[in-house]
Amino acid sequence: MPRDIRTTRALAVCAAVATIGLSGCAGSDAGSSPAKESSGPIKVGLITKTETNPFFVKMKEGAEAAAKAEGAELMTAAGKFDGDNAGQITAIENMVAAGVKGILITPSDSKAIVPAVKKARSAGVMVIALDSPTEPQDATDALFATDNLKAGELIGRYAKAVMTGKPAKIATLDLAPGVAVGQLRHDGFLKGFGIAEGDPSVVCSQDTGGDQAKGQTAMENCLQKAPGINVVYTINEPAALGAYTALKAKGREKDVLIVSVDGGCTGTKAVQSGQIAATSQQYPLKMAEQGVKAVVSYGKGGTRTSGYTDTGVTLITDKSADGVDAEDTAFGLQNCWG
């Protein structure tokens, strides 16, 4: 029988049961235990920001491997672009209707996704945020993620140490408004560098959406505004490589320090070649693996996972700085993704 027919009939049964005042469908309380398992594998949903970003590709691979090992069925979906909140809402609704026990999601809009998440949880579905928290963070049952504030702080401390007291003229190539992960990395960088928001050493700030082409344009704009820039913070490595391209076109690639976050294989190789000075490496495979296991445990009658699980972050560079712990690119390439 086609899945859509089975799903329609299942929903009709639930509606009928509710009408006569019996229980048996998913609970209405976000803290309720899962309904008794029917035959067949436990269904786990994974919703990422996009399908093409290597970070989310690796996350999907990790979820697929974990689902196979756990005997679970994985359903996947993604936004059409980074920031596609409507697409993620539709994916949540479809997965709840299909009977998933839990949804793993990297929210494109940390605030706007919250009503859909609450609705899913009220239907008895456990929702775990991966990589990016919602606002508020406790809108989901749990968060498995890099400590993004720490990731930013590590590269901020590194940049400060490398500058050895020289006056800094900083460009921040950020993500986009309303995305918690971007704000946390930005704030962490400032903290690590020892400055506050609005400090005059930050001479230019541009949003890039984490995109390489937009990162290049942003860097070009910053160089027009402040030609003397000597430190560039970037939200991720695609933005960093875009910034490098713009700097190289101006003959500035060797005298500007670029730091970033991600630790993908392409980005780690860019650190190895000297295009990026240092990056904070995160581990999407761990996020997905642990998330799938948590949903399967819940689906088997376990309790809902709660709170924050730090999946780790490591500073990667081949040019060490005094007082800053780091691993070299050999370590980074053994643990990279993409």
UniProtKB/TrEMBL annotation:
Pfam families: Peripla_BP_4. It is found in: Cell envelope. Keywords: Signal. CDD domains: PBP1_ABC_sugar_binding-like. Residues 44-301 form the Periplasmic binding protein domain. Residues 1-26 form the signal peptide. Its main location: other. This is Substrate-binding domain-containing protein. It comes from Streptosporangium longisporum. The lineage of its organism: Bacteria, Bacillati, Actinomycetota, Actinomycetes, Streptosporangiales.
